[in-house]
Amino acid sequence: MAGIVGGAASIAAVAAVAGIAAVRRRVGDPVPGVDRAADFETVEFDRGSIVAASDGVPLAVREVGPTTAPLTVVFVHGYCLRTECWYFQRRDLAARWGDDVRMVFYDQRGHGRSGDVAPEDCDIPRLGADVADVIRAVAPTGPVVLVGHSMGGMSVLAACRLFPDAVADRVAGVALLSTTAAGIATTGLGRNLQNPAVDAFRLAVRSAPGVVQIGRGAVRSVVAPVLRAASFGTTVSPALDAFAEQMIHDTSVTTMVNFLKALELHDERAALPIIADVATLVLCGDDDWVIPFDKSRELSEMLPHAEMVQVRRAGHLVQLEFPDEVNDALDRLVERVRSGRIDATPRRITVG
């Protein structure tokens, strides 16, 4: 037990690698009115269902808007998050789009209400296959816009690479928020993934996951001062802070650890030519310590029709910290898709 908990202390230092919510830094001024009396405990959806992935893992899906809507937008969350991280998008964009857009959210495997997975099924291509499975089950016809944050963006890219015909026939827009096509282990906090202690702890999780879960409190207490450096670049309200922290608290240690190798090996650059002729959005905070803004800038330069949005002062959880700016950017992407206009004008915007 002592040896495993000791390994947990090492792994905790890298647990923020793709979007965990316990990381936060109170250095910037507050964003006025971000909470807007939000009740983060209540996130309402029109419909809920369980979609069986192609390997049988149950994926919890939530929908907003009519099934007959002419456009479907699918939201894919990041590592150690869940559907609720899109709280402001679900609330505010539904009001903007009305019955013209159906919004689909789901918990990635091993997260939220979705089923647990074996270590060998914790990789980015498998997550990309899940994206395709959800679309086939709940949106089998009509154009689709894919929105991915952090590891969710990696999942979206994997889906586009694995199913290029779907991109040609169905995917009309792609939004990549706080993510990268490759190289997470060489930049930002992800550099800590290249550490022998990570591999040692990953082995401990696979051989004795129950024991490691018991040591969860030790993991969080050791790493808290380090992790508070990345999720938010500004001071956020206590309610939003607690809401974000709860998502990481509710994620099992086995999920946290089993996806680390996938993040380290992630390389979906082959997807970029496939979405080169699709309306795209690349958005990132310029105070993101997990996947630095430069990675998003590089990503946008490889996508000829991308709008690049730099959100000043934002950390990694940009959709929670600066929801209005994110919602405006997603709204512009959807408008481009609906109007048939692929190009973004202008291509680069700074907000916040």
Account of the protein in words:
The structure is a single chain. By secondary structure, the chain is an alpha/beta fold. It has a single domain (2-351), classed as Alpha/Beta hydrolase fold, catalytic domain (Rossmann fold). Helix content is 39%, strand content 16%. The relative contact order is 0.20. Mean pLDDT is 83; it is low at 1-26, 211-215 and 218-227. InterPro entries: AB_hydrolase, AB_hydrolase_1, AB_hydrolase_fold.
Provide the fold topology.
Elements: H1 2-12, E1 47-52, E2 58-64, E3 71-76, H2 87-97, E4 101-106, H3 124-138, E5 144-149, H4 151-162, H5 164-169, E6 171-177, H6 196-207, H7 209-214, H8 216-227, H9 238-249, H10 253-258, H11 260-265, E7 279-285, H12 293-301, E8 306-311, H13 318-321, H14 323-339, E9 348-351
Parallel strand pairs: 3-4, 3-5, 5-6, 6-7, 7-8, 8-9
Antiparallel strand pairs: 1-2, 2-4
Helix pairs in contact: 1-6, 1-8, 2-14, 3-4
